[in-house]
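Lab notebook page, bench 4
Experiment: in silico fold of construct C2
Operator: M.H.
Input chain length: 685 residues
Purpose: comparison with the prior construct
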Amino acid sequence: MARVKRPAVRDPPLTNVPVRRSNRRGAAVKAPNAEPEMVELSNNSSSPSMSERDERNEVENGEDGEHEGEENGEEDEEPQRREQEVEEEEPTTQRCSHGCSHGTACHTAYSLGVGQRGSSGRAEKLAYPFTQWTLQFYLVLMPHLSWDVASSVEGSEKEREGQRTWKEAPNYTFMHEATKARKISVYDYIVIGGGTTGIPIATTLSKNYSVLLLERGGSPYGNPNITKLANFGSYFSDNSPDSPSQQFVSVDGVVNARPRVLGGGTSINAGFYSHGEARFLKVAKLMNERLINESYRWVERVMVFKPILTRWHSALKGALVEAGVTPENGFTYEHILGTKVGGIIFDQNGQRHTAGDLLQYANPKGLHLLLHATAHKILFKNKGRTRPVAYGVVFEDASRRKHRAYLKGRQMDEIILSAGALGSPQLLMLSGIGPKDQLHTHNIKPVLHHPFIGQGMVDNPLNEIFVPSPVPVSQSLVDIVGITKSGNYIEAVEGFNLIGARLSDYQGYSYEMGGFIFEKVNYPQSKGYLELQNRNPADNPSVKFNYFKKPNDLRKCVLGVKVILKAIESKAFSKFKYPNMTIQDILDLNVKMPTTFPPHANTSSSLEQYCKDNVKTIWHYHGGCRMGKVVDGNYKIQGVDSIRVIDGSTLIISPGTNPQASLLMLGRYMGVTILSKRLASDKAK
């Protein structure tokens, strides 16, 4: 399916963060004639590690790297020598595309039009007096320029294509299997979870500090089941340990999935991209409007595209307008009432672009990314302290060998937990922070009784209707959305087996000749909980969402289904509906599908019952480390130091029609916020 692309760019300098450029010895120096100050884009040292002697001592303490004292309930002794014994690597310079040795800073400045060439043809210095205007031009106007105008600033189209698309894995020199990791290593930041928020955070922080990014899954690159639009959903039925999707079934009986792959949900979802609403920004404590907008654009330059609608989706768009989901808003990322075309993360070749693509922004000398690295425990110090302090992580590689990564021990070093709505509360409990009854049940030494961890789990219920078509359809995922006044989001896919049913389950029809139209209930009031099932972090916790426990959620579902039925009967959609097929026929076809509760009912007695029997997930579950209950407005865990949670587990509401745009933005926003404060602090010292 043809897609329209927008030009890609390199990571622009941040405009609200002070500069800290380094000389060869690492001392902070000011840029010549520097008026507006920017983040340092020079290389910094790669992650240091402990001495070989310490590695031998670690092995002697146990095969899995756990100290005996810790097993006896004693606090793990923090290495006192780590700052003195790290192998500091002198910064190296990289030659930029202009032939000089000024590295990334030179390339970025020259590509922005603020670099000046010397007699040798190299970019000899930065024309800082022009930086502020150029950055405004670059950040605000560039995304809207035509290809011809953009090419004069960004370079050749061939270079852009090299940045935007690849069929195999990109050359990320900082990405390795965890089996190649040292037994012990030391960093400024440790980010757990290489997903939708973890990647933007780690990438941003790597500009100036050493960052370890732990991802429990593998790489999406080179796997056509992930990267090709035509193969969407094939991984949901793959229950192997290497599957990018880990299936779980909630206590409610609804089959669900959590990502287990670099890129997180962006590697397995349906790809729709739409900004969150103003209400989300308020409850998420995101107040800097300029940084919000810049963070969205930072994402969109790399991985978001404008779809070209198929005939089926065009007909549905008209049908929704005809059904009263007005006005028709055209193409926009913004969250507005009515029917609109949104962004997608598939390019014109049907190639998926994930959060992993944002790693092209990373400083390769600052970031260390490990794949198949399962975090088992976050380490805390609490002896002689009023509050526990996070200082390290124990993780396991694919060979079942344990490793330890420590913070360097400086005041602003942090562990950032971005393991998702299931993974983050689960890992906190496994590390001794959570409800005391949960810790006691599983014989986990308590670090802090935190009763709200694992509470407030919410999943937005989905109810879909399959509509067989008398004429052929294409294969297309979510390209449009109807945002209703009643609190529903109407979306659709065509030509895909969305529910994973057998061909015979379609009762003489075929998913290849039809589409699924579904509605999502926004702001559900029904809430549930998450509990540990065992102490294995690779296993799923137990989750209950309590779908439709609150009557208002069921009322919203009925209203959403009514909008879908009205759209199906519209004149705009008539070409894609059998003329002799009634609405009752369509509902009866759907209730006989094997995914309903109970399966193979003969008829749909009421829309309320249809909602209950047909409830599914749209994979937008959230909660477990909710804002205001577990984390504060800076995403720091209340009652604990040197650790934050930044991911979907903190959400009070699922942002917008689909949360991925807001979570990608959140990762960048918080990365810039953390980096800005730390650089300002370092500069003051």
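Observations: Residues 1-75, 77-167 have pLDDT under 50 and may be disordered. The longest strand covers residues 374-381.
Next step: discuss at group meeting.
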